[in-house]
Amino acid sequence: MEIKRNQRKPLAGMNLRELREVTAELGMPKFTATQLAQWIYGKRVSTFDEMLNISKANREKLESRFVVGLKQPAEAHRSEDGTVKYLFDVGEGKAIESVYIPEDDRATLCISSQKGCRMNCYFCMTGRQGFHGNLTANEIINQVLSIPESESLTNVVFMGMGEPLDNLDEVMKVIEILTESWGLAWSPKRITVSTVGKKPELKTLVEKTSVHVAVSVHDAVHEERQSIMPLEKIYQIKDVMEMLSRYDWAHQRRLSIEYIMWNWFNDDIKHAEALREIIPDEHVRVNLIRYHMIPDTPKLRTSSDERMAYFRDYLNSKGVTCTIRRSRGEDISAACGMLAGKVKKENQQNETKKTK
User: Fold this and answer.
1) pTM (global) more than 0.70
2) Catalytic residue positions, numbered
């Protein structure tokens, strides 16, 4: 009996081992799995009919049980600065967002790993949305393969909705697809994974991959950090950074610190010193990020340009490489910490409909 189309499993998001299991199950030659990977990840086709070096009989077998599983974005919003925010429908009334950021000779895609987030950081719109589940490898890699700019991408950063290390297995599978020769064959240096500091999972990521790592510190003072980032109560940032100090960041691999700046909260010399004390070595870069206001955060305000520059210059004078990151996509709510506004609105509309 043929499986209904909406029940067929997607192949996009499977690694080569899983594709081999599919072809073996359907009685196909082992090399068909590599052909599938080339069509899906190399040529980004969306139907089996396009896979011309696979026999029609085998394409029909695949069609009866599986779908390629690539879906176009449901919406796209373009910023004045060229940034594009894409909205992807992930079913059950939920959606996630990705942000395409073109700049000179780079084209970066900021991708999501969860529907919402359970880290509950005070200053983040995604956290305000709540947690609605992990994205599958299919839903994550689809963001990379389905945007119009897919083939021109130079970098991917796991800095969208969700905590990537809270969905480690699926994120690791996507990294495998991005870097293996049967996949996109990217260098791991084109990939950055951001985390608020899930220590055990971060250790696994560092030891099992060669991707860049970005740690969202935002405040190096323990009591203050735990008041805005609850995970600090479980994994103190000083301990996370001490663990990272055991690894080599001096060569091709990069460790960076993300630091959102709030006026008279974490932007003075005392906080600059606290940050400097936990930095593992001189090869770590600090990125200062302008705070983008979200509703219901009365105790946080954006730092002034002058205070940000003073903080940067102080760290540089102490031998710490520190830069102020240029804000992108704020006019379309695509900047740091702003993702999920559209999703939240849709969820509220759905709840309103249920009560009518």
Assistant:
1) yes
2) 97, 336
